[in-house]
């Protein structure tokens, strides 16, 4: 399982989402995926970033949390999906 932040360079909301995750102190790395260089990702997330997603071994998204979210919502979502 991989935890991914779909974002793009210069996105202040994406920076806020990253900071929220970091502030919770989880050990699971949060990988960043820039949607600007992938047409499929840009089409899917272009107007909804930041999005945090749980991806399986093949890279398929199994769960997503789209902005806006706060500490409480993010923590509840991460716990629901077994992220520690």
How are the SSEs placed, and which strands pair?
Layout: E1 2-7, H1 12-24, E2 30-34, H2 39-45, E3 51-55, E4 61-66, H3 71-80
Parallel strand pairs: 1-2
Antiparallel strand pairs: 1-3, 3-4
Task: Walk me through what this model shows.
It contains three helices and four strands; from the N terminus they run βαβαββα. It has helices at residues 12-24, 39-45, 71-80; strands at 2-7, 30-34, 51-55, 61-66. Strands 2-1-3-4 form a four-stranded mixed beta sheet, with helices on one face. By secondary structure, the protein is an alpha+beta fold. The mean pLDDT is 95. The chain has a single domain (2-80), classed as Glutaredoxin (3-Layer(aba) Sandwich). A hairpin with a 5-residue loop joins strand 3 and strand 4 (61-66). It is globular and about 30 Å long. 36% of the residues lie in helices and 26% in strands.
């Amino acid at each position: 399982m991989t935890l991914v932040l779909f974002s793009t360079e210069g996105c202040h909301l994406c920076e806020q989402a990253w900071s929220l995750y970091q502030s919770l102190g989880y050990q699971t790395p949060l990988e960043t995926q820039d949607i600007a260089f992938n047409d499929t990702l840009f089409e899917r997330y272009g107007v909804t970033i930041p999005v945090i997603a749980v991806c399986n071994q093949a890279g398929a998204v199994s769960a997503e949390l789209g902005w806006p979210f706060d500490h409480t919502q993010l923590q509840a979502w991460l716990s629901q999906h077994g992220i520690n």
